[in-house]
Write a structure and sequence with these properties.
Structural class of chain A: alpha+beta
Number of helices of chain A: 13
CATH topology of the largest domain in chain A: Aminopeptidase
Strand content of chain A: 15-25%
Number of strands of chain A: 18
Largest sheet of chain A: 9 strands, mixed
CATH architecture of the largest domain in chain A: 3-Layer(aba) Sandwich
Helix content of chain A: 25-40%
Oligomer: homodimer
Number of domains of chain A: 2
Shape of chain A: elongated
């Protein structure tokens, strides 16, 4: 590793300049008038992969192409590491809120400011540079490596699952490494141990066949808005727990070890509260804010609509009311089961004088890693060496369905190790990524491949 | 009265033709491009009043003028009857839903179809024709008579209260007679004994300073939509009663006599339910549908808005939620007091982790008549003679603030006697008014003036 670290040190400037070139390409997947730029980013990346020593192909999909990089010289008996990232970026709008142009990267205070610097070009390109450093200095990689870089992550990855299913044999791997998330704090390397799943439903309550005059009919004809509010109120109990019968049946309790690790994190609830600007925080009794966000399921009203919502005092008795309600799920909850329990519960609590319709809109499985297994062990060694500090475990309240998809289709576990920092403005103006994490992270990845190969080789 | 009835019978055709002329003028007060027509209707009406034997003036206001008709020859010691009506009409749109053009009156099945036939040109013009019949056949009226016909009722009467206040002395009267409502059923004359008041508020609940990602923040940051639903649920108890402390303090219990009279009405709850198209009816326990609509207060959600209400599954944790809530009030509730109790209640039940703002939008006082007093007695005699059936008492769930305004400013009671029929499409396409009620009603009004004069003369 000494030579590899020296090589990376010697090529700091080049590695940064190349990243700048990558960031200058406005590969905004959501905008069809940017399609040529998105394609250019794919080709640029394939060229850089080839320079790094990977075989690279730009493979078409029904949308933007997948860039596939491969190095298979470790041989069929060696383990295979699959690396996933994406070369597309969010739109940069509103442009006027950027301090420097979104696609003209600039370093200020040790941060690279540009759209995609953190999400995910910077983090994806670290892998390419790590692979190159190892190949240039050791002539080989400690495992077979496959890089899958998609161009549609920011539009929901509509073609990724079909791609992975179609290429299942070629993508067969022992681990999927993903660098598209954040560290808990500056200087504090982090390993993601949980992602919440999602079950999203739309609830429609109706009574009269049309809106009525609230004077002429109010008091005698059911009010769907009132009934919907009452139904929504039954979703939680006084302790902030979800009161749908059976909801917690499949919820796995996390080990005391994991809960202790979360409690040990340097997290200031008051700072968090002030940051979101709420008069207070509120959630399930008996759990801390981080636990509520990472390891406990939720039920949130995402939208409400009924009757007159414009200006002034329209005296309407609404004929219908709608709520969007979503659940964040934790292992081993299933979106379909939760949607089913929700519908059964609403039908149970709905009064006979209204109609209720429940539509299932969207679902995604929760995911969790084993913080005591070989993947975290390998990553801990690699990260501690590069950052001078052992990683902490962090959860993610949101959902990244592709993680579960990779595990399901390829039958191998995922390892999520990210290098962005809190407040890095992913999806917002002035997105940034620190030069320090770009460089230290690359070093850590060189070591990570070896640590993983060692453990997966003996396991596989 | 024999001569007067014979006179009306002899002039049936003329009285109907004149009404048709009135209905042909599209005096749509809401449309400024119809202002010339609205002015033409006022002048036409003043001319007809003069022909009937009234002194008539078209008096300007800040909006459409008031037509004032007067006959004061009964002398200063005789009682004065003030008649209120309006010559403006609702817009006729959607025009394509009319079976015959809105401003080309046509008789089908004994009904005059035209905009304004029931609301209120037909009912207002009956008074003019009754006055004319009495003057032509008896040479006088049994009391001094003042007719106030406004041209802005369909736009909320913005200039009526200032007009009445300014003209307080000239409009001084012993009773205000208003014919702008409906009978309970065909052939069943009716007297309005109650109008509900209104208190309308807008409730805003907020937490975070902006919308958040429901995955990244859900479960730990308060959800204003959930909290608003919970707050709205506290507004009623399980028996459908309003659960705001103090809400019923000022509610007058109606006499057993009034409740018996309501119960005696031929009202089919199942037919009503099927008519509104709701799976069931619901309201305050212990009261019938008509009681819930006429003599009991209500609390209705008129509108709900929060978060994402468009298509699909946007995972937003809303920063705010809004509800429009209105109360229909009964004597002796006051809009200001109810809005105050509502705000105090919401502040009491709101959790400390959200902000609550309550805006008072609109208010109107409830009204009730004394069904056992001299006005109902006079009207009963007059209506029974004309329709061959004693009138029933009916309530109105909606609010007509001007009734209370007249009583307050002029210090005299109001008598609401209407001749439209249920289903007559006021404010809708194919508005109609029966020829039978136009004619019988006019006869009943001739008698009503006398019966009122007799009772008010001795009372005043």
């Amino acid at each position: 590793m000494t030579d590899t670290v020296a090589y990376l040190d010697a090529h700091r400037e080049r590695n940064l300049e190349e990243l700048f070139d990558f960031l200058r390409i406005p590969s905004v997947s959501a905008k069809s008038d940017h399609d040529a730029e998105t394609a250019r980013a794919a080709n640029w990346l394939a060229d850089r992969m080839r320079e790094a020593g990977l075989g690279a192909e730009v493979l078409p999909t029904d949308g933007h192409p997948v860039v596939l990089g491969e190095w298979r010289e470790a041989g069929p008996d060696a383990p295979t590491i699959l690396i996933y990232g994406h070369y597309d970026v969010q739109p940069a709008e509103p442009l006027e809120l950027w301090s420097s142009p979104a696609f003209e990267p600039e370093i200020r205070d040790g941060r690279v400011y540009a759209r995609g610097s953190a999400d995910d070009k910077g983090q994806l390109y670290m892998h390419v540079k790590a692979i190159q450093a190892l190949l240039e200095t050791t002539g080989s990689l400690p495992a077979n490596v496959v890089v899958v870089a998609e161009g549609e992550e920011e539009v929901g990855s509509p073609n990724l699952v079909p791609f992975v299913e179609r290429m299942r044999d070629r993508l067969a791997a022992d681990v999927v490494v993903i660098s598209d998330s954040a560290m808990f704090a500056p200087g504090q390397p982090s390993l993601l141990f949980s992602l919440r799943g999602l079950a999203y439903v739309e609830v429609h309550v109706s009574a009269a066949k049309g809106d009525l005059h609230s004077g002429a009919y109010g008091g005698a004809v059911p009010n769907p808005a009132t009934e919907l509010a009452r139904m929504l109120t039954t979703l939680h109990d006084a302790a902030g727990r979800i009161a749908i019968p059976g909801f917690y049946d499949d919820v796995v309790e996390w080990s005391e070890e994991t809960r202790s690790a979360i409690r040990a994190l340097d997290f200031d609830e008051e700072e968090f509260r002030a940051g979101v600007g709420s008069p207070g925080l509120h959630g399930e009794a008996g759990y801390s804010t981080l636990e509520r966000l990472w390891i406990r399921p939720t039920c949130e009203v995402n939208g409400l609509l009924s009757g007159w919502t414009g200006e002034g005092a329209k005296t309407v008795l609404p004929a219908k009311a709608m709520a969007k309600v979503s659940f964040r799920l934790v292992p081993d909850q299933s979106p379909a089961r939760v949607a089913e329990l929700m519908e059964a519960h609403l039908r149970e609590v709905a009064p006979p004088w209204v109609r209720v319709e429940v539509k299932e809109l969207h679902g995604g499985n929760p995911w969790k890693a084993d913080p005591s297994g070989p993947l975290f062990e390998a990553a801990s060694v690699a990260l501690e060496e590069a950052f001078g500090r052992a990683p902490v475990i962090v959860g993610e309240g949101g959902s990244i369905p592709i993680v579960g998809d990779f595990e399901r289709i390829l039958g191998c576990p995922a390892l999520l190790v990210g290098f962005a920092l809190p407040g890095c403005n992913m999806h917002a103006p002035d997105e940034w990524f620190t030069v320090e994490n770009y460089e230290r992270g690359t070093t850590s990845l060189c070591r990570l491949y070896g640590e993983l190969a060692e453990r997966l080789g003996s396991a596989g």
